[in-house]
Amino acid sequence: MSSQSDLRDALRAYDLDDAWEHLAPLLPPHPLTQRNHKYALKRYFDHARADHADLLRPTPTFLNAYLLTFKTLDPGSARSLFSRLRGFYKALRTLRVIPSTYDPLLTLSVPRLTAQPGEERRHYAENEIQKLLTHVNDPEERCLVLLGAHAGLRSGEVCRLQWPDVQLTEDKLTVQGRTVPKGSQLDEALRAWARKHGGLLAEGQVFPY
Fold first, then answer.
1. Could you give phi then psi for residue 174, rounded to 5 degrees?
2. What is the tens place of the pLDDT at every residue in 3-56?
3. d(CA 18, CA 111)
């Protein structure tokens, strides 16, 4: 059978693992990004299975019902899920599993933000952060989690971070002219990531993407 037939069969069976083999190469390659995409698709597949919906030809009624489940989420998460849903159907068009002119989301609207980004956001409690870290084995991902959770860096600041800013021999790092304490967990994570990039001699961006 062709890869298109295999993917159609996987979608009809709501089998995300089999479908993922075809979809993953068309998505951004970073492991954390792919994990987030897969989570978004699992949520969508589970909802479709419960409703016996056709993933290849979802009805507007089903799609609108799915969007209603976003009401319990913060605005940023809702928009992220919707964006990944668009990416899913774009991948299906690219793979010619559905017609190139068919977009079931065309008449739907991105969930509207009812608050400015950051407002009404529930921050993770420390026990939730530690629980998350038990599932993170990759040194890079551990750094990304802790730079946000313990150092309070925004995504743009993380992307611009340079190795000299990290100050591996100090208990602080420098972010756009301000000093930020590391804490033992973040310091240990940064040292582990640095060992893969030359240790104390590491240069350039901490995260090269």
1. -110, 125
2. 889 999 999 999 999 999 999 998 877 777 888 889 999 999 999 999 999 999
3. 29
Task: Give the residue ranges of the chain where pLDDT is below 50.
Answer: 1, 113-120
Angle at 57 (CA atoms; ends 67, 90), nearest 5 degrees: 75
d(CA 176, CA 128): 28
E strands of the chain, at which residues?
172-175, 178-181
What is the Cα Rg of the chain in Å? Answer: 20
Residue 61 to residue 169: CA distance in whole angstroms: 58
Q: 205 forms bridges with which residues in the sheet?
A: 162
Residues 6 or more apart whose CB falls under 8 angstroms from that of 95 comprise: 3, 4, 7, 22, 26
Would you state the structure tokens that stand for residue 141, as one six-digit string?
Answer: 């991902």
